[in-house]
Amino acid sequence: MIIRFSLFLIINFAALAIGGLATSEGVNSDWYTQLNKAPWTPPGWVFGAAWTTIMVCYAFYMAYVWEIQTDKKYVLRLFIAQWILNVLWNPVFFSYQQTLLGLCIITALTALVGYILFTQLGMLKAKSLLLAPYFIWLLIASSLNAYIVFKN
Q: Which pLDDT score is estimated for 117?
């Protein structure tokens, strides 16, 4: 269990690091600072704290799923799809400033994480709560992205 958790944790934080490369300059760019953002947009430090918590919980969640789920290829495909969508959103939104495409990506990511959460709920029971912060955060992030698309 510790090895699986550690592996998922490393992979999750690699996604954050790659995404961070596209985000760091984008957050301070004139383009982003001048956007009309949602009134419920949290301060910048919340994003780092939220993603750190989410990825630790998600690593535990995936370690449990991997242990219980017999179809490892299925689990791996879902995890890879989630990872790609998670990494892809940052450069699309911040580097390429494609807010509508970003909204499509984050909506797909939210739907995928929701699918993972609800399809594994029967097997994982209370351990599914480990994925809830990710799903809830994606709902919030999707609303922030949507606000930018529709108000700019």
A: 94
Question: Residue 35 — left, alpha, or beta (φ > 0 → left; ψ -120 to 50 → alpha)?
Answer: beta
The whole-angstrom separation of Cα 80 and Cα 58 is: 13
Instruction: Enumerate domains of the chain plus CATH numbers.
Output: 2-151 (1.20.1260.100)
Share of the chain above pLDDT 90, in %: 84
pLDDT at 122: 87
Of residues 129, 106, 1, the one with CA closest to residue 54:
129
The whole-number average pLDDT for the span 109-123 is 94
Q: How many CB atoms lie within 10 A of CB 12?
A: 24
Measure CA of the first residue to CA of the last residue in the chain; give whole Å: 46
- CA 47, 42, 114, 131 dihedral sign is positive
Report field, pTM of the whole predicted structure over 0.85: yes
CB contact at 8 A, 114 and 135: yes
